[in-house]
Write a structure and sequence with these properties.
This protein has 769 residues and is α+β, with helices and mostly antiparallel strands. Helix content is 19%, strand content 31%. It folds into three domains: 43-220 and 444-499, PH-domain like, CATH 2.30.29; 240-440, START domain (Alpha-D-Glucose-1,6-Bisphosphate, Chain A, domain 4), CATH 3.30.530; 509-518 and 544-766, no CATH class. Residues 11-38 have a biased composition (Low complexity).
Length: 769
């Protein structure tokens, strides 16, 4: 086990030093399940390797008499099955699971962000059935990194279930039986132990780290993936120029927008010798003692309000005498909004704001701190290195006055300003981490080999056990006979770690100039003559753009602004510019609804139901359900001019299972024009929607409808709320892609695009039910 040995737990709240080098914050197999930069999905499963994930969590919930409970539990995932124990079964093979269930294909895992439990901050994961959200449960994790690894573990379990469903003829009936809900509070009978599970991945640092917060931050390296905070799936318009370096940190200016008379966009970029999970915890922490060691300006911070797990409001004070001796003390208030992308990159948005709890204070001058963002992403390391690295980017908007003089060496006063102190935070963070070995010397992601595989069960033996409950049912049902744990004398087995081979990505710059055009002969039936998709035959409630300057309308750009997987992606990770979309966008509806609207293609007034729509060979209907007051639905209609080839990737997607669709359906967002903070919030990376939000599919006649519930994710709700605040002044580009995961599916192609130009919410048309 890569975790340090679990020590006997002492008084709650005492401080302990974990050391960090044996932190056990790893939880990844060599295949990266959610990283778009690696070939992932079925390699581990189909390769014959069997993985186990285990670690300590808090089980949260409400019992049958309405009392909230918070129990320390050992969570174990084997294949598609999950179990909860009071004791670590590796230490006590006779331990019986108190909860067990199937990680079925309807299970959704949502990250709820931070929540205070026993006066400490923990990261909450919510489990629910996407077909019935009343079936749900929650667990709490020690760090954001642990929450990420548990999400990946559950995703891998869902992949295992999908693999078994596709490879075994009887699995379909078996899975249907397991999907049946059993809410009986039975005590599961003792399962038989078996051999055959090859790898054990421990998550977290053991129960003492949940009960006793360490004075240092736990860390877990992630050397099996390469991330670049400025590279993504969108061709951005920024033109960054390095204008200074200080303390190993580069200072950049966006010279493409430096002459527009507005604020100057600048950023500080540095490589920090710790993993992204650790650095994220440091930046988010309000601990005064820690911040004094690296933050020269915002060291005194106080939480004013926690809106939700991904949004809070912070008050701070600072004394600027070291900047200019005559100035009075200052205070400030800002809101923080954070989330983690599917590629593992953390983004923190910081806005100046006001709050009723902190009006103007006597003796202090209220300062409006510049809007800023943090982006923290892991970097690859050599296979022999025991140190993780991440790229930290802090971006902020500052007034042009003084900046240009400082950049041109006409003035040295910039070093005595608040923006300079903010840009110095990356350098301070870099030095702080470098001076703390517990943060920098972290173990690389490793497999942990079970000493004896008798603690693991084969799939066949699990199927013989009473495993009818889905996992969300198993953790949401509380038994009144359960007592608080007093099993605090658990010692963790020491095992041999196996270092992973580092993957070195070679990016060919010339390949980026190539474009990827869809092979219509492969995706569509070339033996059928194409029909004429005359735009005048189709119309929706939103206008088609007359020209580039038109507003509150839509258009369909080509795919050259998006980066997709090239022909050699599985070998060298090369992405290329997209080409013309395979499907043509023929209409857009912009609806206003009281509740979320689904199955819009079945509505009598839908485009698909009119005479022209019924004659189309194939229509892809994308229904983006936008949570707001009122709610909105953006419905996109993409048409093919010929029938779909059933053996093609599009044919498999249109006629396949929901599991297959969830694993392949990608959306690439881009803010083509608009406020830079909105651009950073939306990002430039492709999002696998089936993993991020709830997607429902309707396949009938000549169409496939995908209903995308953006409100099913707290992170997505937060981002869309920010976008809606600026929607009348921004231009949004979207590209739809079916992810290629096999050699014969490459290169990828753009399925469809849309550009939404300065949409007005009040122009939405009510949808009559």
């Amino acid at each position: 086990m890569a975790s340090g040995a679990n020590k006997k737990v002492g008084a709650e709240g005492a401080s302990s030093e974990s050391g960090g080098s044996e932190s056990g914050s790893e939880g990844r197999p060599v295949n990266n399940f959610d990283n778009n930069n690696t070939r992932n999905d079925d390699n581990v499963i189909s390769g014959g390797e069997k993985f186990e994930y285990s670690g300590w969590v808090y089980h949260l919930g409400v019992n049958s008499i309405g009392h909230e409970y918070c129990h320390l539990r050992f969570l174990f995932i084997r294949g598609k099955y999950a179990e909860m124990y009071k004791r670590d079964p590796h230490d006590d093979p006779s331990a019986k699971p108190i909860r067990r269930g199937v990680v079925g294909h309807t299970l959704m895992v949502e990250e709820l962000g931070r929540r205070k439990i026993n006066l400490n901050d923990f990261y909450i994961l919510r489990f629910y059935n996407r077909l019935d959200e009343t079936k749900k449960g929650e667990i709490a994790c020690d760090t954001a990194g642990d929450a990420r690894k548990w999400m990946e573990a559950f995703d891998h379990a869902k992949q295992q279930a999908a693999y078994e469903l596709s490879r075994r003829g009887s699995a379909r009936n078996k899975l249907n039986m397991e999907d049946e809900i059993n809410l009986e509070k039975h005590r599961p009978r003792v399962r038989r132990y078996a051999r055959g599970w090859k790898k054990l991945i421990r998550i977290g640092q053991g129960p003492e780290m949940l009960l006793r917060r360490s004075s240092s931050l736990g860390a877990g390296g992630r050397p099996d993936a390469y991330f670049d905070a400025d590279s993504g799936d969108v061709v951005e318009a920024h033109q960054w120029k390095c204008v200074r370096t200080m303390g190993g940190v580069r200072i950049f200016e966006d010279v493409s927008n430096s002459k527009n008379g507005k604020g100057i966009l600048v950023k500080a970029v540095g490589v920090v010798d710790a993993n992204a999970d650790t650095v994220f915890e440091i930046v988010l922490s309000l601990d005064r003692n820690k911040r004094y060691e690296w933050d020269t300006i915002t060291g005194d911070l106080e939480m004013l309000d926690s809106v939700n797990g991904h949004y809070d409001v912070v008050y701070g004070t600072f004394n600027p005498r070291y900047l200019t001796w005559w100035q009075s003390k200052r205070d400030f208030i800002f809101s923080r909004q954070w989330f983690r992308g599917q590629d593992g990159t953390y983004t923190i948005l910081q806005f100046p704001c006001e709050h009723k709890k902190r009006p103007s204070r006597s003796g202090y001058e209220r300062t409006i701190i510049s809007p800023s963002t943090w982006e923290i992403s892991n970097l690859s390391t050599s296979s022999s290195s025991n140190t993780a690295r991440c790229l930290v980017t802090q971006m902020l908007e500052i007034s042009p006055r003084g900046w240009l003089k400082w950049r041109n060496n006409d003035s040295q006063k910039f070093e005595k300003t608040v923006p300079y102190a903010l840009l110095s935070q990356v350098a301070g963070l870099k030095e702080y981490v470098g001076a703390n070995p517990a943060l920098t010397s972290v173990s690389s992601t490793s497999f942990v080999q079970s000493k004896i595989s008798h603690v693991s069960s084969s799939s066949s033996e699990f199927e013989d056990a009473e495993m009818a409950d889905e996992f969300y049912d198993a953790i949401s049902t509380d038994s009144s006979s359960e007592d608080e744990d007093d099993d605090n004398d658990m010692e963790v087995n020491k095992v041999k770690k196996i270092k992973l081979k580092n993957v070195s990505w070679a990016i060919a710059s010339l390949a980026l100039k190539r474009t990827s055009a869809p092979d219509t002969n492969k995706e569509l039936n070339s033996r059928e003559p194409p029909i004429n998709l005359e735009p005048s035959q189709f119309y929706g409630s939103m206008r088609r753009a007359k020209d580039e300057g038109d507003k509150n309308c839509w258009s369909s750009p080509d795919g050259t602004g998006f980066m997709i997987r090239g022909k050699t992606y599985l070998k060298d990770n090369t992405k290329v510019k997209g080409g013309e979309p395979l499907l043509k966008l023929i209409a857009v509806d912009w609806f206003k609804v009281d509740n979320s609207a689904t199955k819009v293609a079945l509505h009598p007034k839908s485009l698909v139901q009119n005479d022209a729509g019924k004659k189309l060979p194939f229509v892809l209907v994308i229904n983006l359900e936008v949570p707001a007051k009122p709610n909105y639905s953006l419905v996109l209609y993409y048409a093919a001019d010929r029938p779909v080839n059933n053996t093609s990737l599009l044919g498999k997607f249109a006629n396949g299972t929901d599991l297959f669709r969830d694993s392949r359906f990608k959306l690439i967002p881009s803010i083509a024009e608009g406020y830079w903070m909105v651009k950073r919030a939306v990002g430039t990376k492709a999002c696998k929607l089936g993993k991020a939000v709830t997607c429902k599919y309707l396949r009938q006649d000549n169409f496939l409808e995908i209903d995308i519930d953006i409100g099913s994710s707290s992170v997505a709700r937060s981002v869309i709320g920010l976008v809606l605040g600026y929607i009348t002044s921004i231009v949004v580009d979207l590209a739809i892609v079916i992810e290629a995961q096999e050699e014969e599916e490459l290169p990828e192609y753009i399925l469809g695009t849309v550009r939404l130009n300065q949409v007005r919410p009040e122009s939405a048309v009510p949808l009559e039910v």
